[in-house]
Structures are given as C-alpha cells and as structure tokens.
Amino acid sequence: MSYPILSTVIFLPLAGALVIFLIKRSNESLIKWTALVLSLLTFAVSLPLFTGFDKTTADMQFRETYQWVPSWGINYALGVDGISVLFVLLSTLLTVLCVTVSWNSIKDRTKEFFAALLLIEGSMVGVFCSLDLFLFYIFWEAMLIPMYLLIGVWGGPNRVYAAIKFFLYTLVGSLLMLIGIIVLYFNTGRSFDVLQMMTTNYPYHLQLLLFWAFFAAFAVKVPMFPVHTWLPDAHTEAPTAGSVILAGILIKMGAYGFLRFSMPILPEASREMAPLMMVLSVIGIIYGGLICLGQTDIKRLIAYSSVSHMGFVTLGIFALNIQGVQGGILQMINHGIVTGALFLSIGIIYDRTHTRQIADYGGVATVLPVYAAFFMVFTLSSIGLPGTNGFVGEFLILLGGFTASNVLGVFAATGIIIGAAYMLWLYQRVFFLDVNPKVRSYKDMNLREVLTLLPLLLLVLWIGIYPNTFLSFMDASVQHLVQRVNTAGQPQMAQQIIEVIR
Amino acid sequence: MREALWVIPTLSYLGFVVLALYGRGLTPSRAAVVGVGTVGISALLVLALAIEFMTSPPPGHAYVQVLWQWMEVEGFRPPVSLRLDALSVIMMLVITGVGFLIHLYSAEFMRGEEGYSRFFAYMNLFVGSMLVLVLADNLLLLYLGWEGVGLCSYLLIGFWYRDPENGYAARKAFVVTRVGDTAFAIALFLIFTHLGTLDIQEAMQQAGRTWGADSGMAIAAAALLLGGAVGKSAQLPLQVWLPDAMAGPTPVSALIHAATMVTAGVYLIARTHVLFALAPPVMLAVAVIGAATLLLAGFSALTQWDIKRALAYSTISQIGYMFLALGVGAWSAALFHFMTHAFFKALLFLGAGAVIMNLHHEHDMGKMGGLRTQLPLTFWTFLIGASSLSALPVVTAGFYSKDLILHNVGTSESGSLWLWGAGVLGAFLTSLYSFRMVFLTFFGEAKGKASGKPGPLIRIPLVVLAFFSLVAGLVEMPSLFAYAGLDVHLFTRFLQTTLPGITASPLPLSVEIGRELIIEALQLGGILLAYMLFLYKPGIAGVVARTPWGEALQRLWRSGWGFDRVYSVFFIRPFVWIARVNREDAVDLPYVGMIWAGFKANRFLSRTQSGKVRWYAAGIGLGALVLLGIVVLL
Lengths: 502, 634
Known about the structure:
The complex is a heterodimer. Chain A is mainly alpha-helical. Chain A has one domain. Chain A has a two-stranded antiparallel ribbon. In chain A, strand 1 and strand 2 form a beta hairpin. The radius of gyration of chain A is 22 Å and the shape is globular. By secondary structure, chain B is mainly α. Chain B is built from 27 helices and two strands. Chain B has a two-stranded antiparallel sheet. The longest helix of chain B is centred in the first third of the chain and has 32 residues. The radius of gyration of chain B is 30 Å and the shape is globular. The model of chain B has no long low-confidence stretch (mean pLDDT 89). At the A-B interface, helix 13, helix 15, helix 17, helix 18 and helix 19 of A face helix 5, helix 6 and helix 25 of B.
C-alpha cells in the first residue's frame, strides 16, 4: 500500500465537503455530482481494506501513528482490526447510497446537505479507526453537529424537537464518557493510547466506575433500553439519508464502543456487568418489538424495530463467547444493511407520496411490483429468515446467548416471533390489500433507485448464503478479545490449581 | 448419477429465479413451461436416483454430498450438505412426483389469474425448499428448508392479496408456525451446546452416548423438537392455522397444506427418531397428541360446509394418525401413511378444486349436489380418493397404511388399547365425514350448474393420482395377509436401513382377526351411516342438529373446538392491548416529564422578573436574611 488508506478515507470526504462549499449554490448538479464522485472515490479507496486485510492476526493493521501534542501525550493514531474494518467499509458504501437516494428529494439548501453528508462520513470513519482516545472523542463529537443539522434542517414536521432531543441525549452521555476518558488518561501514565490501555490492568473499583461512565455514552448510542427514546423521534423525523446514517452507522458506534473500549480496557467490570447488560438487551428486544405492533407510522415502526434488533446485538456482545460476539458484530453489519435498505426504500416511496402513515398505503405491490419485491427481501431479512443475512447473525447471537444463559436465550428467541408479527403486518398493510387511491398513479422504481437498493440486496443474500467471507475477518480479533475478557484479573491461584491437577 | 443430487433442489430454485426476474416478461404458457418443467425434470431425476439407489445402494445405504461450508465460528461449522438415504428417497419421490402433478394441474387451474408467473415462482421456491428440508444432512440446513417452506406457505396463502382476510390467514399461518419454529430453534441451541454438533447422524449418536435413555436433556430436546413438529404439522395445540390456510388457491392447499409441507413435522420426528426413542415421556406425548388431534379434527371435519375446510380438518386428522404411529415407534408406518395420504389427499383437493372452479368459486357443499352426472371424471376420482381416505378394505391404498398404523399401535410395547381405540374411532369418523362430502357434493339433487368440463391438464393429474390412491398400498401388506401367502413388506424393508422396525409382541391370530373385523365394521359402518344421514334420510341429521345439544356441539366442532377464541382471549388481545396502550412508549414519559418540569420552572422563575423594584428589593432583603440565618445557625 503506497498511500495511508485510513487517513485518505477520513479526509477525502472532508476535503469534498470543502470543495462543495466552494461551488456556487445555484449549480446544483455540479454539487450533486461532486458529492457522488467523491463518495464513490472514497468507497473505492476503502476497498483495499477488504482485499488487503490480513485475517490471521488480531493486531491492528493499516496503522498510522504521528505525534500530535507530545506534551499531553496525544497522538494521531489510526488502525483497524477485525472488529472495526467492516464498519469502515459499511460507512463508505452507505454514504454513496445516501447520495444517490437524496438526488432529487433534497430541494432546499442542497449545497449544505451534501457537504454535511460528507462531513459525517469522514468523522464516522474516524470514530472506527481511532486508536487514541483524544482523537476518538473529537471524531465522536464531530459527528454530532452535522447530524444535528441534518435532522433539524432537512427533517420532517417535528424535526426541531427530534434534533434537540437527539443532541441532548447523546451530549449527556458523551460528557460522562469525557470524564471517564480523563480519568483513564491519568491512570495510564498520561497517555491516550488505546492499545496501551488494552494491556493495562486497572483496579476493579476504578474499572467499575469507568464502565458506567462509558456505558452512559455507548448505551445511549446503541440505544439500549431504557435510554432509547431519542431514537424513534430522530429516525422518524430525519430525512432519508439521515435515517440511513443513523440506523446504519451511528447507532453501531455504541456497540462498537463496548467492543473497542469497555471490554478490552475494563475486562473485569465488563464480565461482572455482562449479566445485567444481557437482561437489558432482552428487555429491549421484547419491549421494542411490542411497541412496533402499535405503530401507525412506517418510519417509526422501523425505528422501534431497531431498538429490538440492537437488543440482539448487545445480547450477543455481552454473552462474552465467540459465537455471541461474532454474531453481534455480524448482526451490526446486517442491521446496517437491512435497516439502511428499509429506510432507503421508505425514502423512495416517500418521495412519491409524501406520507409516512401506514393507513395511506395499501396495494403498493400491484402498482410498484419491483419495489415490492425488494422490500419483501429486506423484510424477510429483518425477521431473520434463513438464507438471508439476518438469520446468520441472529442465530449466532442466540446460540451465544443461550450458551451464556439458557433462560435469557429462550426469552430472546421469543423476539423472533414478535418480529415476524409486526413486519408481516406492516408488509400486508402497505403492499397488499386493494390499491389505495392515493398510490394509484405512481411509477415503479427508476434505474437510480434500483441501483441504490441492489448492492444491499446482493449483500443480504451473500451474507445469508456464504457468511464466511465476513465472519473470517473477525475470527482472530474476536478470539483475542474474548480471551482477554474472560481471563483478565483471574487470580493466579486458579492457574496454579490447574497446574497441580495436571 | 448420485453426484447430481444437488441438481434436484437447484432446478426448482432456478425456476424460481427465472420466474422472479423475467416472469412478467413471459407469456403465461412460457411461464408455465418454466414452472412445471423444472419440477418435472426434478421428478425424472429423482426417479432415476431412486432406481439407482434401489438397484445399487451406496455403501452404508447413505450418500452425503457436502456443497460448501455455510458458516464457521469456533467449533460451530454447519456445512451445506445433502444426504441421500432411504428416507429422503421416499420423501423426494412424493414431493417431486405429486408436486409435478399439482404443477401440471395449476397450469390450467390458475390460467387467467392475475400474477400467473408469480404463482409458479412461489410454487417452485416451495418445491426447492421442501427438497432442501428432506435432503439436509444437518439440522441447521433442515431449519433453512423448514423456514423456506413456511415462507412459501405464507406467500401462497396470501396469493390473492387484495382480500384482507387472505392476508390475515397468511400471517396467522406464519406466526403460529413460528411459535413452533422457535421451539425448534431452541432445540438446536440445546443440541449444539450439549452435543457440540448439528450434524443429524452425529448428534443422534452423541445423544445416545452423552445423554442416555430417559435423561432430562434428551427429554427437553425431544420436547422442543416436538414443539416445532406440532406447529408445522398443525397438531394440537397449534393446529389453528391450517383451516384458515385454505384461503390460498386450491393447488396450494393440495401441495403444501395436504401432501407435503404439513407432514414436515412427521419427517422431522422420523429423522431424529433416535433422540425421541431416548425420551419415552415425549414419545407418549407424541402418541397422545396424535390420538387427540385425529379425534378432535375428525369431529370438526364432520360439521364443515366449506369443502376445503372439511378437507383441511381431515388433513389435520390424518396427520394425527401419523403422529400416533410415531408415538408408538412405528416410524415406517407413519411414513407409509404419509405417502398414501399424499396421493389421496392431493387427489381430493384437486377434485374439490375442479368442482369449485366449475361452480364459479362455490365452496359451500350445501349449495352443491348432483354433480355426479355433470362432472363424471371428477366424481369417480373423488370417490376413489374418499374411499382411500376411508380406508376401504383391500382395494384402496389408505387401507394398507391405516391398517399398518392401527396394527402397530395395537401390538407395540409402547402402544395401548386406549390409543388403539382412539385410532379405530377416528377411522369410523373418517369414513363418515368422507362420504358426507361425497354424498353432499355429487349425489342428491343438483343445486348448481357446472360450467364446462375440466381440461386435460386437470384430468391427467386426477387420473394418475387416483391410480396411485388405489395401488400405492400394495407395497406393504397387513401381517394377516401372510397367512394367505402374501408376505409383502417392501416399504418397511426399504426404510429399514434408516428407520428401525418396531418392537412388538405378536398377538394370537384370533385377536388379530377380531380387531380387524372391528375396524372394518366401523369403517363400513361410517360409510353406511353417511349414506343414511346425508342421502337416504337427510331429515334425520337435521333433526339431531336442531336439538339444543346438537346445535351447541355443532357450533363447537365447526369452530374447531374454540381454540381460536381461547388464543384470542389469552394471547392476541392482551398483546394488541399492550401495543395500543403503549404506542407512545411509556419509557419516554420521564423524559417528557423533565421537559415539562423545565418549562414550568421557567414560567415560575420568569414571573419573578416582573420589573417591579419593590419586589426585587424585598427579594434581596429576604435572601440576605436567609443567608444570615444560615450563617448564624451553623
């Protein structure tokens, strides 16, 4: 590799945002094409991460380390391992699709919209690549502002309420994390180096405090029950691209945070808190699903389904075994693909009908059969039908969860019944039945829209039929992580006893 | 030849892909050629494979084909692999054979319907998934086929999607079976975490070694698998979805909800019989569920007016027989009845479909009658189907399979006279409701006028299925026939390499003959009673039905013993209620409360900024006092 891939992937979109700011406001098509070319270029630049990744090692790869503020121990340190690499790729892919789906639907302040989108992309990738906590925090917070604007400016009727709610929730969480980061800094010999923290053993009571400080930030992002209530408002009111980024990437950062920071840095506290986390996850799975059954707004229903699905993710992660964690990571990717696709699909029909009310639909399958077929595949993946990616992730998670706790595994499994109930109900009311006069005159998807959904459809089937392509990325890293969590801090006694027995 | 095993399900999937991608660009005839053709070629391939399997069996009577590694996570590495053995050969023969005939029938039956190519796309997807289900060598792949056929069932029940009722029936079928599927999934977790594999053969061996007979784990695992089986096979207590599933087109009812998919539960138990044999309480549960279901559904079938619903209850009842057989360890008897049932029940559904089509979508048997002369071929084939269903002695296939089940239930060590009695009573009910259908539909005075006659694509499947409904039983003769020199046990012998025989205590000849006579008397009595009640003196049935007791019973039976109502009260309504009440998400209330408190505090405090100097002065004074007080007191 002759160029620093990760820095390029981060700063190319940021530079793109700058270029867009320089374009004349009236030249909309140039703005759009710039955004498209740059997002495509960023995706292309990120592809070597897929092809050139060494799957045999748990070490960080594609590393870049430069001193930034030496006197404070702050470095510009980037790198990816099996846990983060796929998220970088997912981010660059989804951004391209966000650009294409917004092509005609954003009519107001086009320039700022596409600039914000590229800003978000750069900082998202930064979050997944940072190996320095200071740098990480900057990217983490940098995401918030363009996201806040995306919801607040281009969102639906209740956008200001949703944007402020989103901002306050995440800000409160982030501030607690900031305190945690500072405490860690002083306890690591004034260093923000994540890799160093991963090998340091902190006293248990400190770990516990830090765990909750980080929990505040990560649980809000995931979002875990009971701090999930910002999500339905934000997802519902955000413009299509905003919902896709939120559901596809942003909420993954919470779960990613657990995997990258909480678990390896605070292994004992994570192990002790895991049962509680699993209980919260299972509550989220069932509670989120039950609320879906009562929704009348398509986007709100999908938003609550995210609460349920992310419950599966955290359940798998805190099962603390390899099946569970790998399933959790894969399910994050899956959820990004499928929920991203569902929001894209809703955006496609919303561009025509300008309504999100389920009652305004009906008979869409008759009017837009191709669209209905796409939506069906994503629905099936969402309810975890074998052959789609959703099944692989959910099955591994439940297998891991069941291994960790039979009872919780069984409760979580009931979530897949509820999932089938609300998704099929939604599908029937929107796509089946007699044609609602309100949707009678609309055209099926055009080429741009088909090309937007097609990559995701192929990924749904690819991961469903041959998930090993993606699971193999995680093997080494997850093994390393699980081992760290499960063996850290165990008294030497136990090992001596084992020796004696041998 | 064996190496081509993977081609068989792939062909159907290929048909699905072609129809799904290009279906709307194809003329109906071409769509039908793709849809029917792929299944037809599969059927021929299966036939060739079966012949090869019988003439030169593979070593160990099984051939495994590993296609690729599905997933691989730390010891959990289920492959996509297919298994050819006696059990899967039988299943494949029925699925592709009957499946082909029903596809052929559909080509004419569905002509002119909106979504003609979509119909064949779903049907092909179904056949492919069903083949994966029976060919799967590990439980995870079996689960894939299992859910795949569930999806197709959903799509095809709701095929005419404009009617909300059909959509409701489709969702009901999917969600109710998914309750069972979840139990099945939990069984997989249990099996994997304790036995370390999902490979069926390996897991069965491990179960014997690790768990042993009558151990808690074996019982739990078998009970959970049973949960999956009762969901798919519409047995108590999850039978409620099947009668409603009749909302789908009739060929769908014939293929999915009679001949193949609903027997997947039977297949699952037979496939994992080693595990069930380790769990005697679960075996007893299987037998009792089968016996109870066959009786309850038999009574319900008796009171239906919709011809398809009557057949649906009959299907539930007949699968009850298969469960009864499984429960006493008579694995191959269950499979034998599965095979004959596939022929005669598909025949009955297709015949009913022909009647319905020619009577302009009339389902109500009360408005039929006298069709014997108008639709002679349909009549004769339907009569053959009904006779086979009623197990008319010697000449029908149903006789041989039902006799084998009852014989095994009567002689098996795990059988009992109670179970036998339930089966015999069920046999009486079966012939009663079967011939009620025949007499109401084809005899008596004509109430409707049939329009036209079924075409060749409908007639050929009817005739072929009628032929098999008569002769398919000859491969396995009752043990009594041995005395007459007819010691034919081809079916059980063929399956013996996969499914062990039954441990039975032989009965004295006189007892056996006596029992046989009781069965035959009741079966023929049922037909006779049907003749009396519904043809000779139709008034009697009406008089009985109009008594208060008669009416109450009728209502109870017709509604399928009120299960729907119970589920509605205890599950559906509470869920819907919670969902409705909590639409706004109660967890959000504290946060909304904070906003409210913030606004209130703002309003309160902003009132203090009144612009009146006296108030400010008073405030300053009061504040100074309080502060001074605090300083003094502390």
